[in-house]
């Protein structure tokens, strides 16, 4: 356990939805939030939705966790997908919420088995589509 | 396990310059006072008598505690009052405790005089430097449980608290405080111990440099106790020097530093490019009024002093700081420290670390410091084409107290209450269990 971890609990629903995203590919993305001292599912995105829809679904001044299933084609013209974990902590959010999300992240991430790439973002430029593409390949 | 509904934890961050203490859940620490204490050896018989007399008078105001053969004076008020033969001593050396009696007296002052709480009733969260050893942590636990009888304790790392408080579990924390500057990479909430680097150049060193530099120009800072200032007519002041032959050298220095550090905070700003004597010889002077009424003018020093953070050998050009030459070869500038520290981390995370460099601590609040560090890092690091981003809270309080604020939020979280190292666990497993509970 990391030093100064918050001990936040994780709702089972988070793990179930994540498994669906991973195995059945039912969702494009899942956004999680911390509510009543546990991590719960906030929003779900259908497979038809795009990365823009996903970023638009993140609140401007509140922290969130999110997973995004990213489809891309490699240089060898091979269809692939990677699952991203994003810790969203915008500068304008309150210190309290930044602290809560950052100190609970390690524990929560461990519950989601199968994350391939992880990034943290404090403004939209840190999770632009180009960065996502660069990290995927 | 501690699990009360009413969480009224106390958070203490004992830094090398100031001690921050307050209630968990609040935005800023209630008590902020110097980490140094006044100390009078009780060897002299007549000295003893004198102190006993004074004790009856100001026992309520000061926190005078006889500790074995010496008496300690803690807190801004007790230190602000000059006493014969009073030495100013610090319990910390390089951020690590060397004198537990003094630390004990500081905690005592914070809890009983400043916060007015009974430690038996409040869980205690202490911030600790990344360099704290196992023995130090166990000693802390023993003292807290045995002497203060706290119901629960937690030790959180400075760097981790700062990192979390800015919403990042992975970052490089550049903590420039009073006594030292520490660069600590944090990954997923763990401090990467092997990559931590520190240097003795902190706010106090810069203050000393400024003082010596002013002295070399013939400006002497008179400590506040060494003169009396009266308004003889409206708007006209008269300053009379007072002589106290028994004042110790360390107290005189302490009082001068208080003033010099205010000058530094008021006028200094980091230069945009490395300091160059000739380029800054003609810059306009900035006035500053000393407590004794004389107005001094500060020119190039405004930029030269902060530049020492970036280029430590610059300190040797200041008359009176020559002894610095002995330690200087091992001391590196801020950008080099950051780069070295990051390069000691795993290759996979370096990019991410360069993208989130966090500034914290009192000295890091210096104007233009963030911009300069970012610029220097970009120049040196451009070949790696890494995204360099230096972050600092726009709010001065948040920047200065980021460690304390992080601790305050953490300790007030409902979910955190299961994480405490409780008194019963201490009684069952002993002090060494702290390593398991607070890794």
Automatic annotation (TrEMBL), chain A:
GO biological process entries = actin filament depolymerization
Annotated Gene Ontology cellular component terms: actin cytoskeleton
From the UniProt record, which GO molecular function terms apply?
actin binding
Keyword list, A-Z = Actin-binding
* Ranges for domain ADF-H: 7-137
Family label:
Belongs to the actin-binding proteins ADF family.
The record ties this protein, via PANTHER family, to: COFILIN-RELATED
User: Which named protein is this?
Assistant: ADF-H domain-containing protein
Q: Tell me the organism.
A: Gossypium raimondii (Peruvian cotton)
From TrEMBL, chain B:
Query: Mind listing the UniProt keywords for this protein, alphabetically?
Result: Chromatin regulator, Cytoplasm, Developmental protein, Nucleus
- Biological process, per Gene Ontology: chromatin organization
Principal place of residence? cytoplasm
Q: Which parts of this chain are annotated as the region Disordered?
A: 43-68
Family annotation (Pfam families) = Actin
Low complexity composition-biased segments: 54-63
| GO CC, alphabetical | cytoplasm; nucleus
Compartments, as annotated in UniProt: Cytoplasm; Nucleus
Record's superkingdom? Eukaryota
The record ties this protein, via InterPro entries, to:
Actin, ATPase_NBD
The record, for Gene3D superfamilies, names: 3.30.420.40, Actin, Chain A, domain 4
What is the recorded function of this protein according to its Swiss-Prot or TrEMBL entry? Involved in several developmental processes including organization of plant organs, flowering time, anther development, flower senescence and fertility, probably by regulating the chromatin structure.
Q: Give the record's family classification.
A: Belongs to the actin family. ARP4 subfamily.
Q: This chain belongs to which protein, by name?
A: Actin-related protein 4
């Amino acid at each position: 356990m990391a030093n100064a971890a918050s001990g936040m609990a994780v709702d089972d629903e988070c793990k179930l939805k994540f498994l669906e995203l991973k195995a059945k590919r039912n969702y494009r993305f899942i956004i999680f939030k911390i509510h009543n001292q546990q991590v719960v599912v906030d929003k779900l995105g259908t497979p038809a939705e795009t990365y823009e829809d996903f970023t638009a679904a993140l609140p401007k001044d509140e922290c969130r966790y999110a997973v995004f299933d990213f489809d891309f084609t490699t240089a060898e013209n091979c269809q692939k997908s990677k699952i991203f974990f994003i810790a969203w902590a915008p500068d304008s959010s309150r210190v309290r919420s930044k602290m809560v999300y950052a100190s609970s992240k390690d524990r929560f991430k461990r519950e989601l088995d199968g994350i391939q790439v992880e990034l943290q973002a404090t403004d939209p430029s840190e999770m632009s589509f180009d960065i996502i593409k660069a990290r995927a390949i | 396990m501690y699990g009360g509904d009413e969480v009224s934890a106390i958070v203490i961050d004992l830094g090398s310059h100031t001690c921050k203490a307050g209630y968990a859940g609040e935005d800023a620490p209630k008590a902020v006072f110097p980490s140094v204490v006044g100390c009078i050896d009780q060897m002299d018989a007549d000295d003893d008598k004198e102190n006993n007399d004074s004790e009856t008078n100001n026992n309520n105001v000061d926190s005078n505690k006889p500790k074995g053969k010496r008496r300690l004076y803690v807190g801004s008020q007790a230190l602000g009052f000059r006493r014969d033969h009073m030495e100013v001593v610090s319990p910390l050396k390089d951020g690590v405790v060397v004198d537990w009696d003094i630390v004990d007296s500081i905690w005592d002052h914070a809890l009983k005089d400043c916060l007015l709480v009974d430690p038996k009733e409040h869980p205690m969260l202490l911030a600790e430097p990344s360099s704290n050893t196992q023995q130090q942590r166990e000693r802390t636990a023993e003292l807290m449980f045995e002497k203060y009888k706290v119901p629960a304790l937690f030790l959180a790392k400075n760097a981790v608290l700062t990192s979390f408080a800015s919403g990042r579990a992975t970052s490089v924390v550049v903590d420039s405080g009073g006594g030292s500057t520490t660069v600590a990479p944090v990954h997923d909430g763990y401090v990467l111990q092997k990559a931590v680097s520190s240097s003795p150049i902190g706010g106090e060193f810069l203050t000393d440099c400024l003082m010596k530099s002013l002295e070399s120009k013939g400006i002497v800072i008179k400590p506040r106790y060494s003169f009396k200032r009266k308004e003889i007519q409206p708007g006209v002041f008269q300053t009379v020097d007072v002589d106290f032959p028994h004042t110790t050298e360390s107290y005189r220095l302490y009082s001068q530093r208080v003033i010099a550090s205010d000058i530094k905070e008021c006028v200094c700003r980091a230069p945009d490019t490395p300091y160059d004597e000739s380029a800054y010889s003609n810059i306009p002077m900035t006035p500053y009024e000393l407590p004794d009424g004389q107005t001094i003018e500060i020119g190039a020093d405004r930029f030269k002093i902060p530049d020492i953070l970036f280029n430590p050998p610059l300190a040797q050009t200041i008359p009176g700081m020559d002894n610095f030459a002995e330690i200087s070869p091992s001391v590196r500038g801020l950008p080099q420290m950051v780069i070295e520290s990051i390069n000691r981390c795993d290759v996979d995370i370096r990019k991410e670390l360069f993208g989130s460099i966090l500034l914290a601590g009192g000295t890091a609040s210096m104007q233009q410091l963030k911009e300069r560090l970012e610029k220097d890092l970009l120049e040196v690091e451009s070949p790696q084409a890494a995204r360099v981003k230096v972050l600092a809270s726009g709010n001065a309080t948040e920047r200065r107290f980021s460690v304390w604020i992080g601790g305050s939020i953490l300790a007030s979280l409902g979910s955190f209450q299961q994480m405490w190292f409780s008194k019963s666990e201490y009684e069952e497993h002993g002090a060494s269990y702290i390593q398991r509970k607070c890794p």
